Amino acid sequence: MKSIDENRTKQEILGRISRLQPDLVRRWGKMNARQMVCHLNDSFLSVMGEKSATIDHEFKARKLVKWCALYLPTPWPHGVRTRPEIDQQIGGTAPGDFDEDRRTLLALIEKFSRQPREFSFHPHPIFLEMTEPQWMRWGYLHTDHHLRQFGV
After folding, report:
1. How far apart are CA 89 and CA 148, in angstroms?
2. Per DSSP, which regions of 1-152 are E strands?
3. pTM of structure
4. 146 neighbors 38 (Cβ within 8 angstroms)
5. pLDDT at 56
6. How far apart are CA 127 and CA 120, in angstroms?
């Protein structure tokens, strides 16, 4: 299973991010490529404690969904709602200069996966507490999901 703290996997992800273009057409969803980069930035910032994101207290099948999301060998489904603070059409960070937003994402992935850790993980809005290997798996899967959204 791929994990963002594995050097080869991280280099693959960083290379794919470097190939992103602001005018790429999405394959699903509502975000454009500029918003997607900011969504990933906001997501990493929230779990690293640098941006607030509310917990979904209504979510019932948390443990099962977390296990399926992290360990089943299938792509994540399209159209899963995100928290308003990291939804670029509601309260997420608005896109700025694309190249700067992309450089921010590259730096956040480096920080997220670096050892020793410079931060403490904050609860995921849906999955809550996770182990370090689970966080590293989530970092890969979430980023991969959105890169595939734009064919990268």
Report:
1. 20
2. none
3. 0.95
4. no
5. 86
6. 16
Q: CB pairs under 8 A, 24+ apart, for 25-33?
A: 25/150, 25/151, 26/149, 26/150, 27/148, 27/149, 27/150, 27/151, 28/78, 28/79, 28/149, 29/78, 29/79, 29/149, 30/89, 31/88, 31/89, 31/149, 33/98, 33/150
Give yes or no for a contact between 123 and 129, defined as CB atoms under 8 angstroms apart.
Answer: yes
pLDDT the model gives residue 58: 83
Q: Which fold has domain 7-149?
A: Four Helix Bundle (Hemerythrin (Met), subunit A) (1.20.120)
Cα separation, 152 vs 7, whole angstroms? 19
Structure tokens at 39: 């969504």
* Residue 66 to residue 151: CA distance in whole angstroms: 25
